[in-house]
Design goal:
21% of the residues lie in helices and 20% in strands. It is α+β, with helices and mostly antiparallel strands. It has a five-stranded antiparallel sheet. The chain is globular and about 35 Å long.
């Protein structure tokens, strides 16, 4: 299955902070508090998200099928922010439905916590 690059997936939520790694920590807390698992980070690459408890590999170690199965990804500058929560466009995962049911959206689709 071919899916578009993760950096082009729609942004469901944006996290910002002026301190090192705080935006990334906010994003991880937000996602895990809603029953999703966050994958391992890899420099300059998205981090995968799946609903449930999973050990998600680094982006470079995932196959195309693994990437297509993701519900969402975290992208951006994990050290300084912003960090974007992007929802998968894949009809296989139903990521948009899972996240939209749980994430309140603000105007423009970008929220800051």
């Amino acid at each position: 299955m071919t899916i578009p690059p993760a950096e082009t997936w729609p942004i469901a939520r944006r996290f910002t902070s002026g301190r090192s790694y705080v935006a990334y920590a906010k994003a991880v807390d937000f996602v895990t508090s809603r029953g999703f698992s966050v994958g391992r980070t890899q420099a300059h690459a998205p981090t995968g998200i799946l609903r449930g408890t999973f050990d998600i590999q680094k982006w470079g170690d995932m196959s195309c099928d693994d990437r297509a199965a993701l519900a969402a990804v975290l992208t951006g500058d994990f050290r300084y922010g912003p960090v974007d929560l992007r929802v998968s466009p894949s009809p296989v995962t139903g990521g948009r439905g899972l996240l939209e049911a749980r994430l309140p959206r603000m105007a423009g689709g970008q929220n800051d916590q």
